[in-house]
Amino acid sequence: MRLWFAPRTISVAAAIALEETRTDHELVPVDVAAGEQHSDAYLKLNPKGRVPVLQTADGTLLTETGAILEFIGAGAPDAGLVPADPVAAAQMRSVMYYMASTMHVNHAHNRRGHRWAKNPESHADMTAMVPETMAASAAYFQNDCLQGNWVLGDAFSLADIYAFVVCSWLEGDGVPLTAFPGIAGFMDRMQMRPSVRAVAEKGLI
Ligand SMILES: N[C@@H](CCC(=O)N[C@@H](CS)C(=O)NCC(=O)O)C(=O)O
């Protein structure tokens, strides 16, 4: 498999899942700061101009972090990243959908206001709201999603990987982790996992 990624972006979640499942893969860096995601060559991989993209062993190109994580998890059932129980699986996906649809979008308002508004004053207004909206998302994740060590209590799952990357943006978005000791502990546990250490050694986080 081949993963197109950029450091510190949501694409790191896919890299962690590949490590968790010991899936053979190649990493292809995308220079997002230089706008490589908008190049003709990259748009052929992902017409949305975003990272990540995962190319499967048969050449299929997958986009959207949640879908990519599910694909990686399904290919390695022994890793246990997706619970067999349908209720637990739905709880896991509930957190993943929240990360994708709400918390990641809150974060994007920091520097990507041009997606939603033309007026620079509107961008500044959106940026000013980010510490508030990200703190609200952090409170929801800490108080209502984390059920002990992980989202599913004792069982580590794809939701933890997704949440880890999104929560790694909190400090940069003006939300100190000292205000969220539950998340701080979760981040410490994640950082101790060999998968996260491996991607850190490669400079992804
Ligand atoms: N819903 C997509 C969002 C992907 C996304 O927004 N990626 C960001 C990095 S975190 C990106 O590629 N940004 C580049 C840009 O906006 O030009 C997913 O979860 O895969």
In terms of per-residue confidence, which ranges show pLDDT below 50 for 5 or more consecutive residues?
A: none
The largest sheet has its strands arranged as: 2-1-3-4
Whole-number average pLDDT? 98
Radius of gyration over C-alpha positions, nearest whole angstrom: 17 Å
Assembly type of the chains comes to single chain
The helix/strand class is: alpha+beta
Number of strands: 4
Could you describe the largest sheet, including whether it forms a barrel?
A: 4 strands, mixed
CATH architecture of the largest domain: Up-down Bundle
Distance between the termini: 21 Å
| Overall outline | globular
* Beta fraction: 5-15%
The succession of helices and strands, N to C, reads EHEHEEHHHHHH
CATH class of the largest domain: Mainly Alpha
Domain count, please report it. Answer: 2
List each distinct ligand once. Answer: glutathione
Percent of residues in helices comes to 40-55%
Characterization of the model:
With 205 residues, the chain is α+β, with helices and mostly antiparallel strands. It folds into two domains: 2-79, Glutaredoxin, CATH 3.40.30.10; 86-193, Glutathione S-transferase Yfyf (Class Pi), Chain A, domain 2 (Up-down Bundle), CATH 1.20.1050. Helices cover 51% and strands 7% of the residues. It contains eight helices and four strands; from the N terminus they run βαβαββαααααα. It has helices at residues 11-20, 40-45, 65-74, 86-108, 120-145, 158-167, 181-191, 194-201; strands spanning 2-5, 26-29, 53-55, 61-63. Strands 2-1-3-4 form a four-stranded mixed β-sheet, covered by helices on one side. β3 and β4 form a beta hairpin. α1 (11-20) packs parallel to α3 (65-74), α1 runs antiparallel to α6 and α4 (86-108) packs antiparallel against α5. It is globular. The model has no long low-confidence stretch (mean pLDDT 98). The structure holds glutathione (GSH). Glutathione is lined by residues 9-10, 32, 37, 49-52, 64-65, 100, 112. Glutathione binds at residues 9-10, 32, 37, 49-52, 64-65, 100, 112.
